[in-house]
Each structure stands twice: as C-alpha cells, then as structure tokens.
C-alpha cells in the first residue's frame, strides 16, 4: 500500500506576513470602524485599504509591469529548468512581481552558473545556500 503513495509538491503560502507601525489615533479610527461593523477586524481593514490603493493605481502598475518586463504571479525554477537553460548556453534574468521560488533541488553551483540576475517585487524563496551563491545578483 505504501508504494502507491506519491509525495506532492508542498504548496507555497499564498501570502506573506508584514508588520506596520501606526499612530494611536489612526489605530483608534480603525478599531472604531471594526467596532461599528464596517470591517471584521484590523487585518480586514488593512487588506481593503491596500487593495483600494492598488486599484487606484492599476493603470500605472500595468504600464510599469510592461516597461520592466515582469512575470506576474508565482514563478518556480527547478533543477530541470536551470539545466535546460545551461544546455542552451542561456543566462536567466529573473524578474517577478509576486513570488519567485528556486526549488530545493537546485544546487548553489547550478544557480550560480545559470542565473545572471534576480529582481523580485514581492517575495523570493530559495535555500540559504542558493541565496548566498546569488547574493551579488539579487537586486
């Protein structure tokens, strides 16, 4: 029975925790809106405020994404991807708005040989060894 079990790739988290500092009066205003039922909690208010700002600047963001040639969303680079680039003699320039992941099956040596630069707006996940090997290319 154990031979039929396949290991699934772990699902990356869909969000990242951030910390912000707010003045007491601003925090009080948020708490009042939560208390009055406009929002379910502080996090709901903050997420809504962020989404409203992103919607407000949507056109500028679209133009910037196009200008900078950014991949949007989740972009995962595994050993096979980097070996394919290596065989073609290509150097990867990773530019992501969202989450960029260098898989755990990628060695620091392979990453250093195939990745020329990394620019991520959002979050970047890789093993500590790969991050160290690419530290001069992460911008």
UniProtKB/TrEMBL annotation:
Signal peptide: none annotated. InterPro entries: RHH_8, Ribbon_hlx_hlx. PANTHER family: BLL4998 PROTEIN. This is CopG family transcriptional regulator. The lineage of its organism: Bacteria, Pseudomonadati, Pseudomonadota, Alphaproteobacteria, Hyphomicrobiales.
């Amino acid at each position: 029975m154990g031979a039929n079990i396949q290991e699934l790739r772990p699902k990356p988290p869909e969000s990242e925790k951030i910390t912000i500092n707010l003045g007491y009066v601003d925090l009080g205003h948020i708490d009042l809106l939560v208390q009055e039922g406009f929002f379910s909690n502080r996090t709901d208010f903050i997420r809504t405020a962020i989404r409203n700002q992103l919607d407000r600047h949507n056109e500028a963001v679209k133009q910037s994404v196009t200008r900078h040639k950014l991949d949007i969303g989740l972009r995962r680079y595994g050993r096979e991807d980097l070996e394919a680039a290596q065989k073609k003699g290509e150097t990867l320039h990773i530019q992501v708005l969202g989450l960029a992941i260098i898989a755990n099956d990628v060695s620091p040596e392979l990453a250093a040989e195939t990745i020329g630069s990394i620019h991520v707006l959002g979050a970047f996940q890789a093993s500590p060894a790969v991050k160290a090997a690419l530290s001069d290319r992460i911008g």
